[in-house]
């Protein structure tokens, strides 16, 4: 019986302690309690940064390549003398394809490892999960993947495309080609849904008819119904925002149903070089993609990047848009830090606007208002070797406009 | 009209895939009460077998048929190994077999990831299964037609084997009453191993067939396993006839709902339909009459 | 007690992590009761956990929106999705009291309904396990498809306050930890009373010999129902605590894999005991966090191997080792 008495007493005591502490805690509306002081150590010869990517779980496929690109950039910078004379030390973490884990690990990197900045994240869910952590602790995240826009945080630098640098140019291109009707197919999560609402607003303003809109659960592998719908709808083109393995099943079904790139082209915004192999080149050859970077981009910076990547990770490894954006993000951080001559978050934020870097995709510049970067948009066609050739590219880098404020047809999209 | 017909074909096609996967499960679950969550990973093993065979035999047509046989053996051997090392010691703990085989599945997935890499690999479809044929305005893709025929052939062979061979009679005897069968001189150990070999082999065959329509990646089995178990439950334990009806019924139901709503809603509604169905027939569509209380 | 010492020695970050583990431990207590004592392998606890978590998250989101942009404001993700009005089912969650009430009632009611359907129809153990797993799968898919009203795969996150207390204040975070620890102890206490009561003995009897209990004049379905409902309640409460501590809830935390991950700690700790599941859940969650920091792929192997080894070869879990020793000692004492 001694055990049971102790167990009754303990919770009572705990509740009492809890109530006591409550009295000291701050209420909403009070001045926010001093958020945790930065513990970044800038005294030694090294500076720590975090690399937070899913190394296990469903997203590992894509995110491991991003981690490799971050490492490559760090190694190059270190070989070149480091940042402000300090060697960069990477603390790697696994986000395990789970948003809650991303939040937890981000906090660990900031509070426990005291990193100066974190590079990584892929899914919108992981970014949304990390956002409050970086804001609360006033630290920096460099996020390298194209995403659905409608966001701008002073604590996140977005080195991937927002909608007006990827989806809007793709629509412009389709319109130029005489497309009058579209069918929308996507995975069921935030990027396809937001992308499609942008597409619908654009379509309405430009007399393009939307013949259908379908979403499948992530990882879905049965597309016969959707392909049936697409086939009977007879649209001029299909806009594809499917993610990951679903693309394999979709394109197999699509080509088996007798639909071809000539008759009904598919524009994909989530298929990069490394996915083409799994889909099978014969199923997807001739279809279109919209990105900012392809391995075949013809710049001296890109030739150096591709050569370095293959040298480091193997000849059969292609480079892709998110990898390039991750690589670029490390350099952007370095340039900004050197501009600010400080690792301090406030200094970096203040110095960021206008910082530019000659990236593999062409020169990119940070927009100080929204922390996104300028990017050149490119439409590509998948060739017989599984690589992507550019068939169209924007006149120059496009200014980032995450809230699509400069487009009349997008009024009311952001809910404001 | 042709929309209805093509959705019917789609439904049958989904049903045939479910059937291929559930057939083996129905056998092992029905006879031994073993809930083999690693069944999904045997499917994955079948898929990767097709990939490996295709690296050796470059002709996609020949390699498909070779893979079907090799896939059956690979799946079967994995099943027997699992049975002999782990499951035989826990027949009286069916719920625990679920967890143990789930663990085995996790390990197999990671093994596949470490060997073949996390990204999907490509298994080429043979030339004669590419494209489609049109019947009365309905487009039937050849690869789905092939899987439908394959499923029917598998069911026919299995049914014939159970009915006419002595091994089949032994299996049926053990399914109906294990103790009585043993008393009658049937070695239930040997029957168990045979059943497991066939059941897991069928998973391998399903895996090979799936490479025709989907991606070959470490998580391929996971996406089918829950659905397959629902088919087994709805069909009735260990009843091939029940599994066939349940698989096709669920397939068609899914196709029809998906056409009029969305894929997500279809998945949820099919599940709800099964729960309601079990209220009416808790023992499943087809059930054996026994005197046992449980 | 260990829980009281922890805040003094752990950093804020680690303490918060421990708070999260305590939430898992609360779920584990319920699973221990339903599965260990009642023989019902519930692979769908994520559903009840998720219900509790989402209800709490909805309330917090509404409260935040009000603080930020005045009464009647929409949560941020709805605005982004183009939603103009608050969906009807969000309305009750403006009231903190109603939210708490619903967290305590809706999941148990759902469990009651499901349980009636399943147990009364005498659906067997294996069927129950698979159905509960399918339920978790369906629930996650449903959540994901509700992009505009429930955040879809992004889930609900970005909270500032919890019942008026700012969340990024370290003192309040400590308070949350204490609340979780206190709740866990209360939950354990109630479960202990249940296990040691006459009802607890009936429950074990139903697990071991359902037919005999039926012949004795009891309805095994009712006995199972109680354990299932209690387990659902514990999961719901744990979910409601999880949200302010972790700061996010997504469909991934409630789906099939998350649900089965709850089981492993219970199995390792010892499913039939009271303390086993608690310590098991904390140990497994802790091992996952630390192991995956160093060897991400090794954790998957470890998880798989744990299932195989513990469930296959040591079904009583670690607790059975202690029980064995104690029994041995008792025997020695007698002789």
TrEMBL record, chain B:
The chain crosses the membrane at residues 12-30, 64-82, 94-112, 145-162, 196-216, 228-253, 265-282. It comes from the Bacteria. It is found in: Cell membrane. It holds the Pfam family BPD_transp_2. InterPro entries: ABC_transp_permease, ABC_UrtB_bac, BCAA_transport_permease. One of its GO terms (molecular function) is transmembrane transporter activity. Keywords: Amino-acid transport, Cell membrane, Membrane, Transmembrane, Transmembrane helix, Transport. GO terms for biological process: amino acid transport. It is a multi-pass membrane protein. GO terms for cellular component: plasma membrane. NCBIfam families: urea_trans_UrtB (TIGR03409). Belongs to the binding-protein-dependent transport system permease family. LivHM subfamily. This is Urea ABC superfamily ATP binding cassette transporter, membrane protein.
